[in-house]
Amino acid sequence: MLGVEALTVRFGTHLALDRATLRFAAGQFTAIIGPNGAGKSSLLRALAGLLPEYGGRVVYDPGHSARECLSYVPQQQTLDWAFPVTVWDVAMMGRTGRLGWLRWPGPEDRRIVAEALRETGVWELRARHIAALSGGQRQRALLARMLARRGHLLLLDEPLTGVDAATQEVLLGLLRAQADQGRAVVMVTHDLEQARRWCDRLVLLNRRVIADGTPAEVYTPANIERTFGGSWPELDLEASGPPPRPLPAPGGGP
Ligand SMILES: Nc1ncnc2c1ncn2[C@@H]1O[C@H](COP(=O)(O)OP(=O)(O)OP(=O)(O)O)[C@@H](O)[C@H]1O
After folding, report:
1. Is residue 225 domain-resident?
2. ipTM above 0.85, yes or no
3. Distance between Cα 101 and ligand 1 center (Å)
């Protein structure tokens, strides 16, 4: 439903992505993994329609326009947190993007925003100015905006940075549930163990797609070496795969 074909991204003479071809399907929770500067954010930005120039193609489900179905959570540090809005306003931005000009949010929009704030645990903070939030609270507010959008394609760039370990698990469960409800969830992460536990598909990226498959297929010494070179991340390659998860409820589409 969303993908890139031979995506090549250059910044000046620097080659950030080299002919990457990937497809992301509904119902799949995919982790994009690779070292710093591997082109992970560039991939997400291309998928989100935010890269002005690239080679190759970004392909969307022909039934949807990218704008209506996509929800992108950028890295927190790329946003202006001094902007004078509250947590409620941030989550409502997930709705107002869809409403268009001169349409006020209705009761249904407010209900969806309230639900998103509760799910991400920031309902109590809804009246707080975003400048007065901690890093983890900001991340939750961004996730609330993403949930409020109710998009089919969720693109998240390191969404758990600054979030405490217990909350990370809660938010990962939330993202997993989004995939189980039929959405395509694509997350950039540096946590290889977490990706193994929560994602059904891993993509190892280092300028090129090095490996793409289930955790068991992807986490091999050769693939890790080709992706990270000498600086191996912490990962137990002998560990077994994730525990079996319950199947999604039937008919639970977005
Ligand atoms: N706007 C830009 N102008 C110039 N170079 C850029 C720009 N954006 C990214 N790059 C370069 O392209 C390469 C890939 O960057 P990208 O942000 O996609 O990597 P990443 O895998 O997300 O890295 P990280 O894990 O550090 O976030 C890097 O070498 C980066 O310096």
Report:
1. yes
2. yes
3. 34
> Which ranges of 100-218 would DSSP assign to H, the alpha helix?
107-119, 135-149, 165-180, 192-198, 215-218
Q: For position 30, which CATH number holds? A: 3.40.50.300
Domain that holds residue 170: 1-64+152-245
Q: Are strands 29-33 and 153-157 parallel, antiparallel or unpaired?
A: unpaired
Domain shared by 60 and 164, yes or no: yes
CA distance 58 to 49: 8
pLDDT tens-place string over residues 149-167 = 998 899 999 999 888 888 8
Could you identify the residue written with the tokens 């920031």?
122
SS3 state at 198: helix
Distance 158 CA to ligand 1 centre (A): 14
Structure tokens at 170: 């809660």
86 and 45 share a domain? Answer: no
Q: Is 37 in the pocket of ligand 1 (CB under 6 A)?
A: yes
The pTM score is 0.87
Of 90, 88, 91, 72, nearest to 80 by C-alpha is: 90
Q: Are residues 24 and 146 in the same domain?
A: no
